[in-house]
Amino acid sequence: MPTQPTDRYAQFVGTAPGTWLSSQLGLPRPAELRRAQPGKRVLDGPALVVGTGLAPLRADLADLLRAAGTDVLDELPEEAADHGGRLAAIVVDATGLREVAELEQVRAAVVPAFRRLAPSGRLLVVAAAVDEAATVAAAAVQQGLEGFVRSAAKEARAGATANLVRVRAGASAADWASTVEFFCSGRSAYVDGQVVTVGPAPAAAPAQERERPVAVVTGAAQGIGAAIAEALARGGAHVVCVDIAAQGEALAQVANRVGGTALHLDITSASAPAALAEHLRTRHGGADVIVHNAGITRDKLLVNTDADRWASVLEVNLAAELRIDDALLETEGALHAGARFVCLSSLSGIAGNRGQVNYSTSKAGVIGAVRAMAPLLAKRGMTANAVAPGFIETAMTARMPVATREMGRRANSLQQGGRPEDVAETVAWLADPRSRGVNGQVVRVCGQSLLGA
Amino acid sequence: MAPALRRAAIVGGNRIPFARSGKRYAQASTQDMLTAAIDGLVARYGLQGERVGEVAAGAVLKHSRDLNLTREAVLSTALAPTTPAYDVQQACGTGLEAAVLVANKIALGQVDSAIAGGTDSASDAPIAVDEGLRRVLLDLGHARTPQQKLKAISRLRPGNLVPAPPRNSEPRTGLSMGEHMAITAAERRIPRQAQDELALASHRNLTAAYDRGFFDDLVTPYLGLKRDDNLRPDSTLEKLSSLQPVFGRSGRAADLAEPTMTAGNSTPLTDGAAVVLLASDEWAEQRRLPVLAHLVDAETAAVDYVHGGDGLLMAGAHAVPRLLERNGLTLQDFDLYEIHEAFAATVLAVLDVWNDEEYCRERLGLPAALGTIDRSKLNVAGSSLATGHPFAATGARILASTAKLLSERGGGRALISICAAGGQGVTAIVEA
Lengths: 453, 432
Ligand SMILES: NC(=O)c1ccc[n+]([C@@H]2O[C@H](COP(=O)([O-])OP(=O)(O)OC[C@H]3O[C@@H](n4cnc5c(N)ncnc54)[C@H](O)[C@@H]3O)[C@@H](O)[C@H]2O)c1
What we know:
The structure holds two protein chains of two kinds.
Chain A lengths: L7 H6 L2 H10 L21 E5 L6 H10 L4 E2 L13 E7 L9 H12 L2 E12 L7 H20 L5 E7 L5 H12 L10 E4 L15 E5 L4 H12 L3 E6 L4 H11 L2 E4 L7 H13 L2 E6 L14 H24 L4 E10 L2 H5 L5 H22 L4 E7 L5 H4 L3 H9 L9 H12 L10 E4 L8
Parallel strand pairs in A: 1-2, 1-3, 3-4, 4-5, 5-6, 7-8, 7-10, 8-9, 10-11, 11-12, 12-13
Chain B lengths: L7 E8 L3 E2 L9 H16 L8 E5 L10 H8 L8 E3 L6 H15 L4 E8 L10 H12 L3 H9 L22 H11 L4 H20 L25 H5 L3 E3 L3 H6 L4 E2 L7 E10 L1 H6 L6 E10 L12 H13 L8 E4 L4 H11 L2 H6 L21 H4 L6 H15 L4 E8 L3 E8 L1
The complex binds nicotinamide-adenine-dinucleotide (NAD).
The site of nicotinamide-adenine-dinucleotide has 27 residues of chain A, from helix 7 and helix 13.
């Protein structure tokens, strides 16, 4: 395993003197985040599920959490109840809200519960799609919920997060189940202040899932890619681990660890798209999941960015990806029905970043590509989504200058860097056969970074 | 009743880049390298936890502690621990001979899949203790009384403490392989320039093959090494011809001709490992694995280099006509030729005798010369002069590359010939 940089500050404030000192000085106190472990439940305590307005989804939300082994409450417990009256999650169905005055119901339900949110607790607001609102007021109310959630996320303490899931008309409980589960669970540990829209699964989706789906992960030899390969394999996929031949040693170790296969391929080579399509067709009878994770940085200030630095970053991070998508979509048998694309973008692609014009351009381009592909793919029962990591503790961030690294770590609501597995779990949720209704979304894994918020 | 024979399919191969001895793999053991080569193969073909029919491999320079080298390597890999394995050793013929052995078991239906290969380290070569010291130590172990122990120890002499490194010489002649080859080269009057040209072609072909990605699914980097470090992409005929001869400067070779063999047209001592995956067609098909080619037939010959008139490394020249005859083929019926470049002179001497009417009649018992081959079909992706030659690993390297070359060109037939110490030569026909 590649060594991950240790966050010594976070370790220090976890000690008794550290806690005292940091609170005296008003310094950030990063909490240890609850993360998913095999066999662990979605939530490790009771969930308060409240409806506001008509609350058409409240019953389904409660059923879903109950089925996941959660103790569902419909009102706030006594302080003295189990867990000291602590809540692992507050789930609010706000899909039925139409009038500004009704927003008071959200305030009234959340305020007393919010202070009872356990460490790494979840506030999840379920809302309607703004563009489907029948009136101007309804649109305003539904949009308003975003402000509510984003601010609550900033006030949440001890690793707790707040996110918003929008459910489109026609989407059934089966369509949003995997998404609600994801946001409640430890898998979304570093996903904070995000808004995700779920629609009905496309009609063209295959009736039956494959027993052992085949997933392709580019740049799988190390870092985030290796973590994605592991997460997808844990979910039962055969992972085709792709990286350049020079990374073959690490790649073989990843492939053997996850029981997948190693494929040496430079995604930028002219023959790569056809070679990958052919490999997937002949060796696997088509892929079910494509994760475009391979990426490079060649940082320089704009004024010093020469054509080479520009071209190499755009080639790997964007152009190669588009060529491969075209080849896979055009080659009969390269993709299995209902295939899923997940593309790694970056916070730099959303917020911009000093010294990363080339990188930010490529990563913003990824978002554009995903949004344009989504409606086209939906017709074929497929989806495309982007994941935009913020500061993730990898070999790449370990190389940063200390001050930049410390800034990156602390400048977010969770006051710490994320881990490769946080990105990987987000990818795995988007690749989940049950997440078919999630299409064209850009999900940040950034602990609600202050950048580009 | 014996089942019908089936041809063994070559599914693919894997090797680690070869390293000149004492360099990148100086700290790696033969077992480490074999393990890495197998693990790369497992990763490429998704064989984790699979019980492969058998794994046959070996090393030429072998430590006494490695008595179960291949099985121990298998236990360190991601293959099922229930995969049986055994060691094979036939000098430089080890890798190909191992492939022939497992291919025959596949042909007979005794196994459905197998891995064959080899590994060698000249860096981590075993060093034996002096024979006198060894006797003393053995007697000491057997001694019961203090007097007996003292008596054993008293036989020790300072000279006994000098270790005996492995010998790169033939036990029966005391000559190194290079000196043997130099005699043959002198006898056959193999010109220096032809040897240098062959070496240059090997480096050029290997460089081109790497550059076009040919080895992307045949090689897995190891300990940070990504390409064979013996490869000289910028080698030129001028550079090669400026090197001083290292073999044939004295003795019989020198009596016959000017020395011609240099460090540039001879293989260096090398570390590395290579394996090849063979299977029945059905086994490959069930796993959606490719069939690059089939191993059709093989023949091993040995020559009496001690008393007879044949050169130490000329046994391949004897094996091939027997192989051709059994298969109803002529020397010209091949699309590719892979003749192991122990020395450039080895390849040239073999080609030379095949085109020599007298040699073919008198030594090979043929009615006429076998003739010449189209040199553009020879070692087209480079061979041992460029990759280096970790003895036991060479066979699997050549077999896997040959199968892929045939599959790339959409079919064809290839002839492989590998010379080995002890006057032996292993040859095979591969078809796609
Ligand atoms: N680490 C972070 O904080 C962070 C933040 C935002 C976005 N990202 C994005 O996440 C992805 C993974 O990042 P990481 O930190 O794990 O990076 P990394 O550098 O550790 O790994 C990237 C992998 O991609 C491979 N790769 C590069 N070029 C390739 C090519 N032409 N063909 C095939 N493989 C190629 C590399 O060999 C490497 O193994 C990248 O797209 C990156 O831009 C990372």
